Amino acid sequence: MSNPDIDLRAIEQFLYDEANLLDNPDLDRWIELYSPDGSYWMPVKPDQADPLNHVSIFYDDRVMMEVRRRNFVHPRAASKDHRVRCSHIIGNVRCTGTTAQGDLIVTSNFQCVLYYRREQRVYAGTYEHHLIQEGGRFKIRHKKVLLINCDAPHKSLTIYL
Description:
This protein is an alpha+beta fold. The protein has helices at 8-23, 27-31, 62-73, and strands at residues 34-43, 56-61, 85-98, 104-116, 119-134, 137-147. The protein has a single domain (8-147), classed as Nuclear Transport Factor 2, Chain: A (Roll).
């Protein structure tokens, strides 16, 4: 999609900033990137039509994201026993259109290496972000993470990808 009003570099920077917050992990600042009606979805099938009528790896609204964030940072959380180390690489960022609500649809490829409890895991796939502008800044209204192997068995995900 070629639109002269779209600043692809600003969108890329936003995605890099999100990845950096997940790498650190700083879920307090990460969740601020989402709009109040934001959602985060990881389908269990490559061609899954929607998150509401089918089983998903997870489908979190803003309330559930807040619950996960609080659990992750809680002083007695299991995540405190072992540090989470993460590295995201994002590429092939493209603006592919708009939603019916007018949100900008941005797709990108990602690779994420996660090290936790003496185990390294590798994740890869495609992100689809639905972005809105709020106060001159981007906010995520919806994020879909389509893992290459989404239909394979997975261990528990320690942190958002």
